[in-house]
Amino acid sequence: MQVSSHSRVSGPSLGAASAAPHKLTALSRHGALPMPILAWTPEVARETAHLYEKVKATIPPIEWPFHAPYIKAINDLKKQRNAVILAHNYQTPEIYHCVADVVGDSLQLARIAGQSDAEIIVQGGVHFMAETSKLMSPEKTVLIPDSRAGCSLAASITGADVRALRRKYPGVPVVAYVNTSAQVKAEVDICCTSSNAVKVVESLGADTVIMVPDRFLAANVARQTAVKIIAWHGACEVHERFTAEELLRYRAEDPSIQLLAHPECPPEVVDVCDFSGSTAAMIDYVKTRQPQRVLLVTECSMADNVAAENPGVDFVRPCNLCPHMKRITLPKILDSLVYLREEVTIDEALAQRARRSVERMIDLN
Ligand code: SF4
């Protein structure tokens, strides 16, 4: 098994949303706009035809007339609002390929967001991702199309829990996975991602480190370092469902299949795979190695998104959906841009402490 620290961000230039110069009025910046008329017309068909080419392997022709009017309206409104859409690799193909300006994993999205000259960020992802974007771009308006888009990992721990851990293990540094709230990030020493967790843990120069909130990421890290890891008990409700037995059945059916696992999977699942890495690292693996058959042991929309860009690769798709990611839809993204909702705000004192934990991690790279 190989473990990679590679990552990937792709998509049109961040200037894309503002490529056509236009004058923003106070209303277009701050107020609601009229809801565009949504209709499947010859003009909409013509203007979205190139986007359908990207997703035709996963979206049947009969469904496209439903998506296309939203896609055209959203792409028009992005220009009017000077907005960019950041989409996580687990977003559905019509979002990922047709309205997103940047796609990638959560930290990459936040870092790229900070470099954008857009005034508004619409987060295609879950709430902690929108919070991280706000931390990295405090001057921008950050919107999440459905504020109920949570995460079982982020929900498993609070800032008070971290303070209790510090009392229980005095002097032991605390590392938080980026899949945590700003409140938790504000209480820890440093953040990590699935691709840099070992490096972050070892950078602290301590014999023992507390890792929150993912017990499986912590267990996978512990096997790669001499540092003793104290883990919190959280888990991703998508990745914890995979089992080694089911993956071995796929391998028995086709010994040539390549199994790629996210490090949020249990260690015994990672053990039977050929590769473990972040979502971005898995995408790189497929893109550069072009395996004949592959199974991505992660959220199932990712296989749809990667398949669209790798037509020569056969994807085997056990489907574990993230219900939180699926709360983000084209109609909600359109509402978000029309009505500027729902805005993500973070108390500035708390944001400063949380930002410091993220920046310490970034400074290590
Ligand atoms: S896939 Fe898992 S880690 Fe990602 S948002 Fe969903 S519950 Fe959270």
Describe this structure in words.
With 365 residues, the protein is of the alpha/beta class. It folds into three domains: 2-149 and 325-339, Rossmann fold (3-Layer(aba) Sandwich), CATH 3.40.50; 154-236, 3-Layer(aba) Sandwich (Rossmann fold), CATH 3.40.50.10800; 239-316, Rossmann fold (3-Layer(aba) Sandwich). Helices cover 42% and strands 14% of the residues. It has 16 helices and 14 strands. The strands form three sheets. It has a five-stranded parallel beta sheet, with helices on one face. A five-stranded mixed beta sheet has the order 2-4-3-5-6, with helices on both faces. α10 links the parallel β9 (208-212) and β10. α2 packs across α3, α3 runs parallel beside α15 (330-339) and α5 (106-115) runs parallel beside α6 (127-136). The radius of gyration is 21 Å and the shape is flat. Residues 1-28 have low confidence and may be disordered. The structure holds iron/sulfur cluster (SF4). Iron/sulfur cluster is lined by residues 90, 126, 151-153, 179, 236-238, 299, 322, 324-325.
Sum this structure up briefly.
The chain is α/β, with parallel strands linked by helices and 365 residues long. The chain has helices at residues 26-30, 42-55, 64-81, 93-96, 106-115, 127-136, 159-168, 182-185, 197-203, 215-222, 244-253, 267-271, 279-289, 301-309, 330-339, 348-364, and strands spanning 2-3, 9-10, 83-88, 102-104, 120-124, 141-143, 174-177, 190-192, 208-212, 228-231, 258-261, 275-276, 293-297, 314-316.
